[in-house]
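Hypothesis: this fold can be encoded by more than one sequence.
Test: take the structure tokens below, design a sequence, compare later.
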């Protein structure tokens, strides 16, 4: 079927932004300086790399505007944790209150290590929805020591553990 969109091949710049119709759209930082294909539909813009969708944003109809997805920049934050409070892509990011509670607790316990641990928790948002991670954080906050591994543990459903048994009949 006909794909009713405007397609443009372009390259992501050093800031992990792709220009389309005089506006910039973010892509994951690992794809900076890579060639991508942008498909502009009436409602949204999708960005592809090797026939795989890597980003989707609401279409901007004004000129010279930027659409950031904060999740695209979390990988970079691991290397530069000091940018957590000052990074422009994260400026308007609204997260549930449990995230700020977790950050405060981690930074009280470990200072700089706490900030890095909080960024590791944010990286869980690359694979899980915000609501699910927030619920896992709420469960983890009830413990005395809380870290990324504890939050990740609560993200996975409880599986019934059945111990392995060996049948030794006739042996």
């Amino acid at each position: 079927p006909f794909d009713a969109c405007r397609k443009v091949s372009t390259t992501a710049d050093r800031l992990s932004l792709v220009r389309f119709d005089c506006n910039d759209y973010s892509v994951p930082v690992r794809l900076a300086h890579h060639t991508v294909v942008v498909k502009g539909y009436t409602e949204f813009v999708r960005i592809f790399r090797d026939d795989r969708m890597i980003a989707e944003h609401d279409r901007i109809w004004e000129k010279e505007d930027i659409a950031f997805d904060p999740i695209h920049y979390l990988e970079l934050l691991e290397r530069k944790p000091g940018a957590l409070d000052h990074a422009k892509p994260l400026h308007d990011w609204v997260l549930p209150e449990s995230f700020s509670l977790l950050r405060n607790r981690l930074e009280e316990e470990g200072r700089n290590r706490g900030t890095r641990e909080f960024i590791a928790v944010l990286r869980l948002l690359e694979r899980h929805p915000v609501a699910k991670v927030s619920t896992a954080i709420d469960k983890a906050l009830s413990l005395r020591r809380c870290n990324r591994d504890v939050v990740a543990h609560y993200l996975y459903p409880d599986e019934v553990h059945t111990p392995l048994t060996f049948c030794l009949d006739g042996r």
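The radius of gyration is 21 Å. The first strand starts at residue 6 and ends at 11.
Hypothesis status: open.
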